[in-house]
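[job 4471] stage=fold_predict status=RUNNING
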Amino acid sequence: MTATPWASRAASLYDESYARRYRAHDEEFESSEPCRSFAEWLARVCGAFGRPIDVLDLGCGTGRYFWALAGVRSLTGLDASPSMLAEAAHPYHADRITAGSITLVAGDLMTHPFAASQFDLVYSIGVLAEHVPLDAPLVARIARWLKPGGRFAFSTVHPASPSIPRTLGRRIGERVAPFAPGAAGRLLRRRLLAGGMYADETHVRELLAAAFDIESLTRFESEAHLHCLCVARRRAA
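[job 4471] inference complete, writing structure tokens
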């Protein structure tokens, strides 16, 4: 299966040298308040099930958060970079990982064929609406992979993040967008969201409305970005 440009780019950029540096950075986890907050958030999401669960880490990289998961029967880590997955084979805090089994998969999240209703939890940190677009087709794929009542937990980069260059065009667009009518307003909003590379609360709600009930949707600031942090539950068919 041909990889999408997003997966090809990730496989190229996140080569062996980059993956080693990224994995070395994982060892500084304990000194990073944002990373600890993400880990605590994931533990709470897992705990909400109250039973053993099957989990997919979408864009797992070096497996930075594997150790934070609790009550996991099976864990699948998907990433487009074989070099990052090689590092995920010996992830941070490996001695604290409690998942019953771990499977690492080299693949494109836009095209990889997971089975319907395979997972209780799909989570993704620092990938969606950051390195790949968060859009309706991807949300539909994730909904198919989840069991009814399963959860989708993810972060996005908020379009108000200070990490996004405040160009003159962006500043004008932000002022005009709330008042632009119809198709012109929708087009302007898509441009401000960079085609799904950023996502605010409104965009997240719109994308999830067809298949999910949102349990929480908050803003969170890391050292790199202002994020949306969302947990949504898959409705029964």
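[job 4471] summary: The mean pLDDT is 93.
[job 4471] exit 0
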